[in-house]
Design a protein that fits this description.
62 residues; binds zinc ion; mainly beta; 0% helix; globular
Length: 62
C-alpha cells in the first residue's frame, strides 16, 4: 500500500492557508506565481516535487 499523498496544495508562506495551486508528487516549477485567497497576495515559488521554495525578488515580473 502506498501511503504517500499523490497531490498537495501549496501552503501560503504568509498565513499557512492553502493556495489555489496544487502539486503532483513529480511537479517541477520554476518561478511559478501562486495566489493566496486569504492574504490576496501572490508569491513567486520554485517547486521540486513537494519541496516549495519562495523566491524573494520583490515585485519584478518579466
Ligand atoms: Zn496567505
Amino acid at each position: 500500500m502506498e501511503s504517500k499523498p499523490e497531490t498537495k496544495w501549496v501552503a501560503c508562506p504568509d498565513c499557512g492557508s492553502n493556495t489555489r495551486t496544487k502539486l503532483r508528487k513529480d511537479t517541477i516549477l520554476f518561478h511559478q506565481l501562486v495566489f493566496c485567497p486569504k492574504c490576496k497576495k501572490e508569491f513567486l515559488v520554485n517547486v521540486n516535487a513537494f519541496d516549495v521554495v519562495v523566491v524573494k525578488e520583490g515585485h519584478r515580473i518579466i
